[in-house]
Design goal:
Structural class: mainly alpha
Radius of gyration: 17 Å
Strand content: under 5%
Number of helices: 9
Shape: globular
Order of helices and strands: HHHHHHHHH
Number of strands: 0
C-alpha cells in the first residue's frame, strides 16, 4: 500500500526547508539536541490539523468530476513552482538568530505547533500531494490516506530531529558557510520544480 515512490517523494518534501525546519534548526543550534527534539515534536503535531482537513475533504473530491481533479492538480502545480522560485531566490533560508534564550519544553512544543498550524501552505500542498499516491480502485481510499499521512508525519519527526542534531553538531558548516547554503537552496528549489512537473503530467 505504500510505494517506494511515495517514500522517496515524501523524504524530498520533508527535507525542503520551511518555517518548521528553520525553527528546529535554530533551536538545535542555540539550545541543544534535546530542545530540538521538542521543537520537532511540536512541528509534527502542527501538521495534524492540516492532514485531517485534507483527508476529510479529499474523500469527497476524489469522487467528483475530472474537472475538479484537474483544478486541484493545477493549484498544486502552481504552488510547487511558486515555492521552487521562492526557494531559489531566498538567500536567508538557513540564517538563524543566535540570541534565542532558553525556554521550557512546553514552550518549545507549543511555539513549534503554532508555527505549523498557522501555516496555510501546508493544507494547499497536502491537498495536491497525497491524492497522487492513493491506489486506483482501492476499496477504502480514506484509510489509505490516513496511513499515508501517518507515514509522512513519522518521517517529518525523524527528519526534523535529524536537522536539529546536525545543526547543533555542525553549526559552522550548515549556517556559516555561504557555499553550503547556496547548494541547499538550489537543490531544494530543483526538487520542488521536479515535483511540480511530475504533478502536471499526472492523469486521474
Amino acid at each position: 500500500m505504500i510505494s517506494l515512490e511515495f517514500l522517496i517523494t515524501s523524504l524530498v518534501v520533508v527535507l525542503i526547508p520551511g518555517t518548521g525546519v528553520i525553527y528546529t534548526v535554530s533551536t538545535g543550534i542555540v539550545q541543544g539536541r534535546k530542545a530540538s527534539i521538542y521543537a520537532a515534536l511540536g512541528c509534527t503535531a502542527g501538521v495534524i490539523p492540516h492532514l485531517m482537513a485534507t483527508v476529510l475533504g479529499l474523500a469527497a473530491v476524489m469522487h467528483t468530476s475530472a474537472l475538479a481533479f484537474q483544478i486541484l492538480k493545477y493549484v498544486g502545480v502552481a504552488y510547487l513552482f511558486y515555492v521552487a522560485y521562492a526557494t531559489w531566490r531566498d538567500k536567508s533560508g538557513f540564517a538563524v538568530d543566535g540570541t534565542m534564550s532558553k525556554t521550557s519544553a512546553t514552550s518549545l512544543v507549543v511555539k513549534a505547533f503554532l508555527l505549523n498550524i498557522l501555516n496555510p501552505k501546508l493544507t494547499i500542498f497536502f491537498l495536491a500531494f497525497l491524492p497522487q499516491f492513493v491506489e486506483p480502485g482501492i476499496d477504502q481510499p480514506l484509510l489509505h490516506l490516513l496511513l499515508l499521512s501517518a507515514v509522512f508525519m513519522a518521517m517529518t519527526f525523524a527528519v526534523f530531529v535529524g536537522y536539529g542534531f546536525v545543526a547543533h553538531a555542525f553549526r559552522r558548516l550548515v549556517v556559516d558557510s555561504a557555499p553550503v547554503q547556496s547548494w541547499l537552496r538550489y537543490g531544494f528549489a530543483t526538487a520542488f520544480a521536479g515535483l511540480g512537473a511530475k504533478l502536471a503530467l499526472t492523469e486521474k
